[in-house]
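Example for tutorial group B:
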């Protein structure tokens, strides 16, 4: 009888206990796999989302909140920036480009709307070396046209030619019912290709359209919606036109800035100078700007989240340790019932060392099967979680685990299982042949 036959029959005789122990090991390994893959993939996704922006200017409370609100659509920035301030800043600094954006509206309270200039689609890259491309349609060219990110199009079911009414704010940012800008219906004129960033779940329109609907809201609140203009122009279908806008209406929330760089370079020596000038220039100090370096702030955020990562990984390791204890208990309890079998093996010529190795191999086999199953389940679970993030939030995460890490995880699990099997193996080693082969009384 071979060692493998002895081990397989032993495992089959304790089928329920064996399966339960393997499941415990698989759960611990799967949890570790999900945490490791999602952590690394999440870091890469956040770093992708900053695109080719060098600086982000706003009036948020802090640089980190500026990046989260202005680039990752966490919330509407609380304080606006005047469009005239944007133009002053753009003319005063050595910039490759500066793109104004306005955030605060949404579609059905769930899909953020970013109002911006046409060069947003030609200058800004949502991810490094990833330019905007259209799956269908085109960019907006006139008022009340809107472009959909790929996740927004998929999640809303909107198509080219669809008419949409935007809402002020989001359902998460308002305690009461959200206000719809039903004075104007936007027409979907373009749908973008996926970029693998949070921008895929946004919708994009021009600044003038956003200014007009908010100006009309202001006039309605002031009781001036039906005011009689002294000037002569055609409003078209909308009650007011661009000539009716005041400086108070021309507001933005963020400025995407890229400092002038050498061709083919992503780094600019002028970046610290530009940041310092914005912070210290008297022209910008009446209401100080918050100046954020998106990549530095993302690194800072990931550093904060990294502390939580370590706690979660430690918890997964504790689960794996508990699985090892489960292996030890399962084999320990079985040894009480198998002492007579061990004694028979000894009589048939099996040495103490062979009996020891049989129990240790059985323990290692349980760990190996559990590790393999956990690795497979963990990868499937990570892919499922990535799919939910991509569909619901437009966040592209590609979870994967490198071969060295996977092998290290399996090897570590087998080693833990072997350590757990030492106590039952020692019990088998010390089993007395004379005592356990006595006839039952």
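The residue assignment follows.
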């Amino acid at each position: 009888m071979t060692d493998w036959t002895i081990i397989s029959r032993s495992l089959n005789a304790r089928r329920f206990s064996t399966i339960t122990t393997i499941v415990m090991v698989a759960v611990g390994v799967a949890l570790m796999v999900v945490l490791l893959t999602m952590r690394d993939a999440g870091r890469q996704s956040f770093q992708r989302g900053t695109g080719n922006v060098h600086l982000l200017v706003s009036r948020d409370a802090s640089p980190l909140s500026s990046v989260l609100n202005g680039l990752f659509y966490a919330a509407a920035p609380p304080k606006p920036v005047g469009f005239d301030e944007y133009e002053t800043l753009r003319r005063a600094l050595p910039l490759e480009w500066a793109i104004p954006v306005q955030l605060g509206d949404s579609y059905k309270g769930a899909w953020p709307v970013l109002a911006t200039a046409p060069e947003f689609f030609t200058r800004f890259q949502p991810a490094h070396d990833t330019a905007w491309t259209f799956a269908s349609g085109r960019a907006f060219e006139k008022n009340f046209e809107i472009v959909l990110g790929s996740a927004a199009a998929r999640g809303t079911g909107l198509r080219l030619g669809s008419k949409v009414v935007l809402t002020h704010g989001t359902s998460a940012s308002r305690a009461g019912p959200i206000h719809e800008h039903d004075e104007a219906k936007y027409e979907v004129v373009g749908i973008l290709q996926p970029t693998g960033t949070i921008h895929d779940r946004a919708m994009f329109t021009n600044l003038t359209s956003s200014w007009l609907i908010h100006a009309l809201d202001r006039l309605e609140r002031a009781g001036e919606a039906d005011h009689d203009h002294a000037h002569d122009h055609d409003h078209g279908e909308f009650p007011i036109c661009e000539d009716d806008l005041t400086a108070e209406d021309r507001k933005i929330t963020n400025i995407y800035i890229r400092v002038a760089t050498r061709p083919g370079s992503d780094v600019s020596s002028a970046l610290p100078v530009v940041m310092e000038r914005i912070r210290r220039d008297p022209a910008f100090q009446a209401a100080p700007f918050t100046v954020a370096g998106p990549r530095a702030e993302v690194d800072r955020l990931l550093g904060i989240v990294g502390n939580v990562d370590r706690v979660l990984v430690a918890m997964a390791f504790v689960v794996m340790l508990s699985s090892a204890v489960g292996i030890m208990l399962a084999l320990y309890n079985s040894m009480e019932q198998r002492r007579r079998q061990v004694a028979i093996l000894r009589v048939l010529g099996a040495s103490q060392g062979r009996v020891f190795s049989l129990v240790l191999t059985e323990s290692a086999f349980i760990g190996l099967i559990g590790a393999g199953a956990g690795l497979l389940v963990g990868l499937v679970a990570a892919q499922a979680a990535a799919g939910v993030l991509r569909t619901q939030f437009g966040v592209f995460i590609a979870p994967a685990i490198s071969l060295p890490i996977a092998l290290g995880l399996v090897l570590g699990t087998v080693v833990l299982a072997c350590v757990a099997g030492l106590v039952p193996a020692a019990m088998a080693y010390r089993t007395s042949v004379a005592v356990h082969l006595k006839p039952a009384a």
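The two ends are 30 Å apart (CA to CA). Compare this with the pattern of hydrophobic and polar residues in the output above.
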